[in-house]
Design goal:
387 residues, mainly alpha, 16 helices, 3% strand, two-stranded antiparallel ribbon, two-stranded antiparallel sheet, single chain, 71% helix, 4 strands
Length: 387
């Protein structure tokens, strides 16, 4: 089993490679015209390169290659086709996203490309075996259901990350927090003997953390570059792969071993809570667009980050608020793994309450609400005068 230092070296390599290459990608993108112009749906004000996924993908490949050369990961690569499967699927999904960034492609074509990437995961065995439904039972997946579940899981994860990528640094920060939390979770399962030591889950998570942290300095507001669909779909695939081979394979644990809370939050449900922000945003988007009779691929400004900005929060504060919610959700589901008392949960509840109040009662929000009320009264007065 690789030690923490080995994982940190690989994650540092991913971060360093991505950080160094991103300025190069910016120059090339500006020269080739691979930029996205401002419009009524976007919040940025100047034409900005949107192919940051190139640097992120190269960072992923270099970090994965480094791990292959390290003795610490010999057990992971020995007679194991899964790293190759993640690499091939990542190349497919990144190529799909990059093509959409450079030349728009249709929604059916995106789905088809994602199915192809999911098929590569299935072929190389990057799948889940079973899952526990909290308070119910453990369900083993029949062989004929494995491809379907894997592809649907991949479609959900990639779409969630892609939709949340609407403000500078938002998607990169959320995935960094989520994948870092899942790395801690999966390594703890390995330490307890509940997850095989040759699982690729922790490695994929730490690489995802690295490429996000390496990209972040160039992507935080004001962003010099966006990750684009190439980067967002890549991150979604990495999260889908890691959660499948951890959440869908961790040995079912008994209530007596880890307590009622951990028993309730079964392994496959952990990522659903950790990625609660983008998943909720995706669900709301589906409901919102379906109710309006719009296609699911129709872009709008009704996402969570847009709503925070409409409340009166600026870009940076909106991003930080959603980062904090992701961190709180991650801490909430991880605390039973590392603690036995309830004090931590009470503290998290107080923090969540404080963050909720900060979100809706910030001075800028109150000022914006008052200004809207004043404008509304003024419009009513003008309307009465016009009569």
């Amino acid at each position: 089993m690789p030690d923490t230092a080995a994982y940190l070296i690989v994650g540092g390599c991913a971060a360093g490679t991505t950080f160094v290459l991103t300025p190069v990608v910016i120059k090339v993108a500006n020269r080739l015209g691979w930029v996205v112009a401002p419009d009524e749906r976007r919040v940025h004000k100047v034409a900005t390169p949107d192919v940051g996924g190139i640097a992120m993908f190269i960072g992923f490949v270099v970090a994965l290659a480094l791990s292959r050369l390290m003795d610490s990961f010999d057990s992971l690569y020995s007679r194991n086709s899964e790293p190759r499967g993640v690499l091939i699927a990542a190349a497919i999904i990144f190529g799909l996203g990059l093509l959409d960034d450079v030349r728009d492609i249709s929604a059916p074509a995106k789905v088809l490309g994602t199915v192809l990437a999911g098929s590569a995961l299935v072929y190389y065995g990057v799948t889940m075996f079973y899952f526990r439904v909290p308070r119910v039972d453990v369900f083993f997946l029949p062989d004929e259901w494995v491809p379907f579940v894997t592809i649907v899981w991949l479609l959900g994860m990639t779409q969630a990350i892609n939709l949340i990528d609407g403000l500078d640094g938002l998607a990169a920060g959320i995935v960094a927090i989520a994948s870092g939390s899942f790395f801690l979770y999966s390594t703890e399962l390995q330490n307890k003997g509940l997850l095989a030591n040759d699982s690729i889950g922790p490695l994929v998570c730490i690489i995802a953390v690295g490429i996000c942290l390496g990209f972040m300095p160039h992507n935080f507001n004001p962003a010099k570059i966006f990750m684009g669909d190439g980067g967002a779909l890549l991150l979604g695939l990495l999260m889908a792969s890691a959660t499948s081979v951890v959440g869908g394979r961790a040995d079912p644990v008994t209530q007596q071993q880890f307590g009622q809370s951990y028993f309730f939050f079964a392994p496959l449900f952990i990522p659903l809570f950790i990625l609660g922000v983008p998943i909720l945003d995706t669900l709301f988007a589906i409901i919102r667009r379906t109710s309006r009779g719009q296609g699911l691929a129709t872009a709008d400004k009704g996402h969570l980050h847009h709503r925070l900005m409409n409340l009166g929060h600026g870009q940076r504060r909106s991003v930080l608020i959603l980062w904090l919610w992701t961190a709180l959700l991650s801490a909430f589901v991880l605390y039973p793994v590392f603690t036995t008392g309830g004090a931590t949960l009470a503290t998290l509840g107080v923090m969540a309450l404080g963050l909720g109040l900060y979100t809706v009662l910030h001075p800028e929000v109150r000022r914006n609400r008052a200004l809207r009320a004043e404008n509304h009264d003024s419009e009513l007065e003008n309307s009465e005068t016009g009569r």
